[in-house]
Queue: 4 jobs
Job 1
Amino acid sequence: MNARRLTLVTCVALLTSTCLDSWKLTGPYACSSDGTCAQGLTCDDGVCCKPGGTPACPTLPFEGSCPTGAPKRFYFDSDGDGFGSGQPQQLCARRAGWIAETIVQGKVVLDCDDSDAGVPINPLAPERCNGFDDDCDGDIDEGLPQTPWYRDLDGDGFGSDLPGDALSACGRPAGFAPRAGDCNVMSAAFSPAAKEHCNNLDDNCNGAVDEPPLDDAETPGGSATVACMQDAGICSLGGVQCVRSAVTNMNSLVCVPREVPRLEICDDADNDCNGLKDDAPGCGGPTSFLSTPKVQFGTARAPLVSTAQPSKLPRNCLKNVPGADPQSWFNPSWVGSRAEFDGGIPYRHTWYAEAERGTWWDLSRTSTLRIALTDRSQTMLTYSTANFPGPVVTLCGATDADYLRMSPNTNQLVNGRSLAVSLPLTGAPTGWTVERSTNFSLDRVTRVELTISPDYNGGGIFAVETFIVVVQPTTGFQP
């Protein structure tokens, strides 16, 4: 038998205190993994022992006493903060995880929350504003300064004014705000900090509805400016204002022009502020040339140079043809003359109505042009059929080379009589011949011309024959 086995056998046989002075938990007296020991022994703090016998137990008292004196009370410390809780045990010595009983001012100090080592909750901890009973005295956040808080359901920073929705606390509870005054606790759009809008509601909770200044409308006389978001034109110079309807007694946002609306013209803008650009009558073409402001009128006379096309007139508009000279226009009368000393040269006379400079008429949605004339000539002046039947009607486009011309197959104007005819702007009117340049378009018409060719009947070398044609107010475009 070797020396190591001899020593082990000797210690087991003798069971002397010398051999048990340094018990090892992994040695022959360690408890098994399930905390059990051999028959007659008890597991105490990981060691198999015999209370009151040999080997002696390290913590368990025997018959109410310990080798060193009376046993002490210990409490298990789950969170390791130095304070225990639960049922105490009478032990001779401290076990791992247990804390000896502490008494302060005659009271046992126990841990009232032994579950979290990171939260120092025990009888000696200071009370803090955290919603816990830090010092384990049964009160939460006691002894700390209290502040009033108001229930804030919509999270806008303002709470309800109702008494049942207020409480006092040392810190801000979840769902509460430091200020009251919210007039709509279900919507963050309403609070004393909100901006007022034109919506028939009290957005800023001051007891007034739609009072200035408004966030979405300008205040008349004030500094806030909210321009109308519309297309170019005088309407865009207006401002968005909060206007109350006399019918509904409700407010609404309205674009109020800063300038008085004017007649619509064809300039890709809403000039009359009706929400439409380039609409009739101003842009769709005047229904009456004579009663529409800013329409320009004039007359011109020029020698007639015969050409091959049906109208026998130049392939362009006639106002600006070289050699033309102005005649008289006494609104609504068109006055021209024919004299013997003209040398027998045939002349053509043109009256025109023209859109304001820089603008045009969009006739793409217009159906007809109405021509209404009355001859008031004092003599039996006749109108040529040899030169061309009249009146010839010409619509001028963006340039004088862009034109649409309608020529009657027989003379329409007769001395002393009236003429009233409606000419369709698309297709060929019955009894009329149509000429059209390649680039002409109805959506950009700048001028309408009427052309006639009066005959001289003869009355001496110095005789002058005058014609007077009255343009009737109904002359204009028809939708």
Note: Residues 1-23 have pLDDT under 50 and may be disordered.
Job 2
Amino acid sequence: MATGSFGIIAPHPPIFVPSVGGDEALIAFQSLDALALARDALAAFDPDTIVLMSPHAPAVYDTFLVDTSARIEGSLAQFGDPTSYAWPGDPELAEALVVRLDAADIPTAPRGADERLQSGWLDHAAIVPLSFLEPTQQHRLVLLSLSFLSLATHRELGRIVRETADSLGRRVAFIASGDCSHRLKQGAPAGFSKRGAEFDAVLVEHVKAGTLSALVGLDPELIDAAGECGLRSFVALGGFSGNDPVPTRVLAYEGPWGVGYLTALVGDAALQAAGALESTDRGTWDGAAAGRKGGSPGDDASEIVTLARTAIESWVRHGTQLTAQELSGDEYPATAGVFVSLHRGGDLRGCIGTIAPMQSTLAEEVVNNAIEAAVDDPRFSPLVASELADLDISVDVLHAPESCSLADLDPSSYGVIVTSGRRRGLLLPDLDGVEDVTTQVSIAMRKGGISPGESCSIERFRVERYT
């Protein structure tokens, strides 16, 4: 088992960055919340150097590239965000890595060996995760390009990264940047393949189990059909992390735009850092119905909760997705973001939702999110039939956010979104322990990586909670 290892699997869609995606970024709030926890764990670990493997850095087919620059910088200007990002490099570690890889007969070269490889330049697959995980831009950075050598060779590269860091006494965190299948639904960027979801399910299960070495042996036809971009980064992280089973924690998996986004902590040091930080701040959406649970079997539940329960029971008992009929109540909007929260015995058993509507009707939104809360919340095993008898369900329907001032907030009535540049933190209303505006805004700012005193904008939103 690996000891003292810190790694993060991180997605890299530019739409996550508020200055690129705007409010649409909030659709993937599960991933944003997961990145916030990973960021705090990384800060607690406080590495000397971050080693990041990017699928979109300049690459050579049969050679690994290591950026040995003293400064690495770039922007997301091609996506509409001219903000400049820059990190100090770690030439000593990078150059030592080139030497060790060469000694192991692994084809490697410094990016500076050819000016066409743009040494010292950051691509979006490095900038996006780093902008969330290392917003201070202070830690040293070594950037690795993947190659099209074998997966086994990528795993060996990861092992040598760890060996090289240890030889120099470097405290290193390894960030594996990468998205999963790009073919999860019709209209996805790379087209649709039913094998996309199959690939992602296999990948997530191996990460959950800590069997990262098994990624080397995945079916090449499945990999090709999935249209993924992150597998080689994840395999390299597995080599860095050591022998199976590697301690892991999946923080989020979702695919709202047809591309799979996986966020996970990998290695015992990563889990220890996250465990030390655990508090009620983690998973704000998890507590959506804390202290307000209802919708128990036999209750005179609201129509929308009854729909959620029927959808869950149909899926869990029979494996069939309920055809959503239009909700009859006049109080329901035509479409909206929805969170479905499940509890058993007072404990959270699943919570999945969307900030903005992803389906054509509110009923479809409820059905989809209810099923995902029951079987796809990465923190829990899928719900089984024996758990249905005492399952409490609540459904939160979200209103659109509106700009406001501090004086307009009320934690019991409004959720809050705090934004500063590309950083954003969100907190639901009516949470246990959040009784005043100062506490509410402070937690939202911490979740977004926004320091006290920074200039920021504030939005509020209402939630209709049904039990």
Note: Residues 284-397 form a domain with the Glycoprotein, Type 4 Pilin fold (CATH 3.30.700.20).
Job 3
Amino acid sequence: MDDIIWQDVGLNDDNWEDPPRWLCDAKVRSGILAMLDLDRCEEEESRLRHERRAMQEWFSEEWDTVNAAYENTGVSVFTCYHTPY
């Protein structure tokens, strides 16, 4: 069954006013859906920003560890990262 079947607003009403716009106007319904999509996108963007920050902090720590390991081996860091052609 489609969700619309449960929308029984006005079936038992003696008041014949216009139904709410969210019920009878397709543009209003599509606007509501667009707003909900935007809200979900903004929530996801916030989560992604948090994940990016955590990943940058993790990579920075890993980079420092790698550099410390190279310094302890006595090998020049420049030599390790630069390969002559």
Note: The chain has a mean pLDDT of 81.
Job 4
Amino acid sequence: MWGGRPSELAWSYTTDESDRRLLVFDLRGSLAHARMLGETGSVSPEEADRMVDGLSRLLEEAETGAFEFESADEDVHSAVERRLGELVGASAGGLHTGRSRNDQVVLDLRLYLMASGAERRSQLHRLASTIADMAETHASTVVPSYTHLQQAQPTSLGHHLLAHAWAALRSADRFGDALNRISASPLGSGASSGSSFPLDSQAVAADLGMSGIIPNSLDAVGARDFVAEYVFAAAQSMADLSRLADEVVLWATSEFGWVTLSSDISTGSSALPQKRNPDVAELIRGRSASVFGDMTAILALQKGLPLAYNRDFQEDKRIVFNADDILAASIEAMVEVLRGLTFHVPAPLPNTVALDLAEVLVARGVPFREAHRAVATLVERLREEGRDLGRADGDDLTGAHPRLDASDVSSLDPAGSLSRRRSPGAGHEESVREQVAEVRRRSAGRNLG
């Protein structure tokens, strides 16, 4: 095919079996191309029919796992052409009419990412829905929220969990946005500057369910920003999963004590009989590093390459496949981790209602900074006395500021604090239940049109 056989070293270095997973997509693209060649008269109708029949048989082999690669197949494209020749003879040589490996491989990869991206969206919606179910169960469970890993304000466990659900939905949306650009067809661009044959590239794109064609042939074969965008969507998804995994690890510590891990999602220690280790969550957190590396790799791969195609681009598949595989497995693992958690969250510390007391003063006309200083001084004095706001009495409050009175002790309750938080997106029970309903609606896809 290449007009000569390279040395064994060159052959082993330049061949890459990772693109074999593109087999079904290569065949679908080739079928659409062959049909178009016959319809436009670029090849005879009889030759087009033979190619279509042969490719249909190959697609059946591929889908059933019967297709066999050989060691002499340089890549998935040569394997298809070789096997098609075995089935239909010389007519197989017509399949490359009006097409180059350069636009063919871009088409295959775009078709693959369209399918895998749709699967990632579905997985992320399932993750968000799983979290929503947990949030509904804990809509009224009062827990501390944290800033700087210090207890901040009372919130609900459901509200905390939903923050991760919203992140998952945004990740799903990123894949959807990326797919809008990935679904453009490069076929017809040829090696770099198109073809003299009367190709109907729009018909091929429509046949493959793509949104249209790329308007510039050099850009079509010489750009990999669509791969980088996909890898970024995967990397950000892994960053979000890693944050959730890190919280699971933190929650499972004796110091936090928020959750008990089921034996399905944890392992015992080889030396310490008392321990259950959150290995699955730790591996999700750890494998995010590999996907972040893929993000750097795909950006570096594109840097400084002259238009249009360069063999450097062979490496894009290795990069995106790794990122995609890790993300797919990690989402499934996270769903199982979440289903294996039993929560027993301690109540917030009494001082988490300090802001409530300051807001009482603000509501009575005291500037916030003055109110802040008064409450901070009170908290510090109580601390020095070995107390906290949960043990403060009316005398403590009236002594802290003249506009506080003894009845304001009733505001020093974490559950009451949460019920008073009514700003949009706050953590009170009604808000949590509204968010749960919206997350479920979006996860079901009813808003995706």
Note: Residues 102-140+151-343 form a domain with the Fumarase C; Chain A, domain 2 fold (CATH 1.20.200.10).
